[in-house]
Amino acid sequence: MSDVMLRLENIDKFYGAIDVGVHAVKNVSMDVAKGDIIALLGSSGCGKTSTLRMIAGFEATSRGKIHLAGREVQNLRPVLRNVAMAFEGYSLYPTVTVRENIAFALKSTNLSAQKVAEKVKEISDMLEISDILDRSPMSISGGQQQRASLARALIREADLYLLDEPMGQLEPQLRTLLRGRIKHFIKERGQTAILVTHDQTEANALGDKIAVMENGEMQQYASPSQIKERPANLFTGTFVGEPPMNVFPATATLADDNIRLQLEGSLELNYPKSRFADEVCSKLIETKHVIIGVRPYAVKRGTNGAKATVIANQWLGDQSHIAASFANGTIVLVEHDRAAVSEGEDIVIEIDPSDLHIFDPHSGDALSHGRDLV
Amino acid sequence: MSLKLTNITKSFKDDLVLNQVSLSVEKGQTLVLFGPSGAGKTVLLRLIAGVIEPDDGTIEIDGLDMQGVEAEHRGIGMAFQNFALFPHMDAHANIASPLTARKQTKDAIEAGVQKLAKLLKIDHVLSHQPKELSNGQKQRTALARALAGEPATLLLDDPLRNVDAKLRFEMRLELPRLLKDQNATVIYVTQDYKEAMAFGDTIAVMSGHGIQQVGTPADIYLSPGNIETARLFGDPVINLLDVRPEKGAQGLQVQISQTPVSIAEGYSNAVDTDCILGIRPEALRFVDKDMPGAFPVIVEAETPLNEKTVNLMRTVNGRELMLSRPAGSPGPSEGEAYIAVNTSDAMLFEKTTGNRIEPLHAAAKSGDSA
Amino acid sequence: MEQVSTLERILRGIAISFVIIFFMFPILWIFLMSFQTNETILQVPPQLFFEPTIVNYEGLITGQLETAAGSLKIEFMGNLFNSLFLSTAAVIVGLILGVPAAYAFARLKFKGSEDIAFTLLSFRFAPPLLVLLPLTIYFQKIGLADTYVGLIWVYQLIVLPLILWIVRGYFEDIPADIEYAYRIAGHGFWSTFRKIALPLAGPGIAAAGLLAFIFSWNNFIFALVLASADKQPVTVGALAFITASGINYGQIAAGIVLSIAPTFALAMYAQRYLVEGLSLGAVKG
Q1: What's the average model confidence in pLDDT over C214-227?
Q2: What does the alpha-carbon distance between residue C178 and residue C173 come to, in Å, rounded to a whole number?
């Protein structure tokens, strides 16, 4: 395990008795390489926070092993695990100033007072909290508390940094800036971090890999671009990406040596049969109905395709979001310029076969991705 | 003029919230009140609704002075940020309440509720109590209630704030059309610049007790009145650099990253004054070193953001810059690089006042970007 | 969520039993006493096992008190009725006056509203004896002494502040936006008060009413001074058991059991409201 910083091996978590209580985390395994930032992404109650708390040691594992920096730590007390954690809620010591809160994390090191002051200044400049260092945690806003908590975690030397929704309360523009700075800070120091978030934008921005969780199960553990291009199932596909993936029911038939996918609204896509695995192929023909997904940026306006009627065209300064009614539903397009179409106008939409994702309508599992078929 | 506010002033105890605010909206138009929290947007909405009274100034609806007119007689529909559903009544009764107030017949009430519920796709949950509704359903119920009385004036107080990102996106696409169909005069309050640009026929930017700028989305985004307004629109936020325009060999220029970069000739009156250069992140692009106007930066981080890629960079002088480009477009994720900006895309602000300097020739005005 | 060991569970059980015994013992003892004669009660050491008798209850219900010195007529059932009547009436009057006042204090912030509200609350702090003497004199002058009306009036000193402060907290907890929404939908002020504010503060009003009922029921000093025998509630009526020939513990116990029964039943029934009313509403005020 030379470059693996953290390894989770078949982790289970039950609240209540084992196999009887609430099964919050189900057989989760993952390896985190040294120097990587991993985003645990999911909606509330998906098990991501429980997983984080088990890694930190605030929560006992019901089953499974946790290896951290070459040690087996699942039975170790939190303080012995050498992890630094930024909490989502209010975890600052209320009786001392923000500065002392941050500097406190360096207390056990033998750094000189001057060195500590320098480090505090550097990190508080980065997180835009220099002006509140001498205030009491009680007197600052939620977003400022969050950043102070983040500063207190990042300033430490630790094997692993655990960040629980570190930017949930900040306004969007500040988030965008801080994401860049924090990513740079962590990467520059070669730190390994796990970020828990429900915000897919945050996960995409910061994560080298994203672990998508739902119902206590790991849905997919892959890089942001892999998740974007090859979502493992419908949940991952629609959860990651903003604006969300367009999904439509389609009918699959065999025509000559092609698999033909037919959407309402006269859009038809053909793939050579040979590109599908045999069992996927027979499954397609057998069930006949599939769900196809296409990301908004991959939907193009063109001359050769299906007709749709524009119902909204919203220019946001650097992007246009267009919604068009199509195939009994609505399809969303993203363009990077100010799109010159108006409401009520008919457009022709084109979808490149390579941008398509095909899902099983029952299990939701991805059957195939256009990229692999063309 | 369907709604006209003149010199509205309001304080709570010693806190001045609104100072001499004047606004007007044409019938059937949507005005977005946009600004950071604490700018007084919600207070202004409540003044129009008539649940609080202004200290000074007049509110006219359809030419009638509203002073002394109780909230229930103003012909207004309102949706609240926290929905404010009546917790002890089911969704049906909530939506029906503007109709029952008008003492309509049972059939008319039923028809009105059903029509809106269908339109907003909540007809299957009409018998639910508010606490049994999902956030999205609550928000739609609140909206249906606001629309039920077919009000001439519709006040929407950040109605999408408390719903999740996916639903917010869906409603952002759906709601403008719904509002247009109602043919009501709409005042829409939001803190989200995307919503403001998507909804507004006109946007009024509020901050510091008053209105900074009123204009169309394009006016505000492309020609912001001052730095504050420029900063409020756009994510990532606009890049701002201290510069001093000077006359160089190639014409008017500023120094960025110790490199001369041309700016529009129209700014000639700003030569040798302290200015702030504003460049939208999407107006910056990676270029070859040899390209005229290319200046060096160090790329520090790459963070994808909703179909865009954002790069955090530093100039030679250590100033931060952000660049955004379509996701998937080529660009370095770290290390040295050269970037450039179109001359027409750089805005100049006076350093002392923060006001934007209008370039002298209209030709320099930018139409589209990146 | 933690795993609880068996030992810990046992220790918890013991601790809880101890607390229950500590608090319930007096009530249990009185309950047992009410089924004993004076003789068995006064035995030393006390007997845990005895021949139960209902003679005490008989005496109370028939109004005929048998003592060593002879038989005595008492008005216990009348007292019980007085308690019921006085408390109920006091609470009804208190609610009619207090709920609108609480709404005004919660919603219409006017000059001096805080001061007035606090003054009303301060009646609860003053010892009742402070007001009793002047009150007695005035009541006698205007003919209110020894009348139900007078007593109900004086009971407002106990009932009103309680209702005012609890209910006000509940009104303040209703988001103003909900009332605004109803107004904007086209309903008037009174309609909003009746259809929105009252139902939403309902649990608080119920809790305040119940508490006020219990407080009035338990009141002793006002009734002792201001009421004569036929207007006396049970709290004062129980004094009759202290006779020249001794104290009738058995009857006192039976009297207590009968008189706490209604409030006890009420409190058990409305336990949830009471806890909410006390912990939320009142603290928030």
Answers
A1: 84
A2: 11
Complex prediction ipTM = 0.89
What is the reported pLDDT for C222?
A: 84
Whole-number Å distance between alpha carbons of A77 and A56: 9
- Listed by number, the residues of chain C in 191-220 with a beta carbon closer than 8 Å to a beta carbon of chain B are 196, 199-200
User: Are C245 and C67 a contacting pair, CB within 8 Å?
Assistant: yes
Higher model confidence: residue B179 or residue C109?
A: B179
Domains of chain C: 6-73 (no CATH), 76-284 (1.10.3720.10)
How far off is chain C from B76, nearest CA to CA, in Å? 6
Q: Is the pLDDT of residue C254 over 50?
A: yes
Q: Which of residues 81-140 of C touch B (CB under 8 A)?
A: none
CB-CB neighbors (< 8 A) of B88 in chain C: 199-200
> Of chain B residues 29-88, which have a CB less than 8 A from chain A?
36
* Model confidence pLDDT, tens digit, residues A6-15: 999 999 999 9
In degrees and rounded to multiples of 5, residue B156 shows phi and psi of -120, 115
Q: Which of A309, A229, A327 is nearest to A269 (CA)?
A: A327
Max CA pair span of chain A = 78
How many CB pairs below 8 Å do chains B and C form together? 62
Three-state SS at A303: strand
Distance between CA atoms of B189 and B182, rounded to whole angstroms?
18
List, in sequence order, every residue forming a beta bridge with A248; answer none if it has no partner.
Answer: A292
pLDDT range class, residue C66, cuts 50, 70, 90:
low
Which residue in B48, B61, B74, B78 has the most chain C C-beta atoms within 10 A of its own C-beta, making it the best mutation to test that interface? B78
Give the nearest chain B residue to A206 (CA atoms): B303
C176 → chain B, closest CA residue: B84
Say yes or no: A27 contacts chain B, CB-CB below 8 A: no
pLDDT, tens digit, 9 for 90 and up, residues C71-89: 767 778 888 888 899 999 9
Q: Check residue B343 and give its pLDDT.
A: 84
**A74: pLDDT strictly greater than 90:** yes
Greater confidence, C220 or B72?
B72
- Show the tokens assigned to B274: 């302290």
Question: Domain coordinates of chain A in residue numbers?
Answer: 4-239, 246-373
The reply to whether A309 touches chain B by the CB within 8 Å rule is no
Chain B, nearest residue to C177 by Cα: B84
- % of chain B exceeding 90 in pLDDT: 76
CATH domain A246-373 topology? OB fold (Dihydrolipoamide Acetyltransferase, E2P) (2.40.50)
Q: State mean pLDDT over B272-290.
A: 95
Residues of B in contact with C189 (CB under 8 A): 70
- Domain A4-239 fold is Rossmann fold (3.40.50)
Q: Which residue among A176, A315, A336 places its CB closest to the CB of B326? A: A336
Chain B interface residues (partner C, CB cutoff 8 A):
46, 49-51, 70-74, 76-78, 80, 82, 84-88, 97-98, 101-102, 145, 148-149
Residues in Cβ contact with B154 at an 8 Å cutoff, skipping those fewer than 6 apart: B76, B77, B78, B79, B146, B147, B179, B182, B184, B185, B186, B187
Q: Cis bond leading into B332, ω under 30°?
A: no
Contact list, C181 vs chain B (CB under 8 Å): 78, 80, 84-86, 145
Q: Tell whether B324 lies on the interface with A, counting CB pairs under 8 A.
A: yes
Going by pLDDT thresholds of 50, 70 and 90, the confidence category of residue A228 is: very high
Q: Is the pLDDT of residue C185 over 70?
A: yes
Residue among A60, A53, A104, A112 at smallest CA distance from A83? A53
- Taking CA B84 as the corner, what is the angle to CA A138 and CA C273, rounded to the nearest 5 degrees? 75
Going along chain B from its start, the domains and CATH numbers come out as 3-231 (3.40.50.300), 236-362 (2.40.50.140)
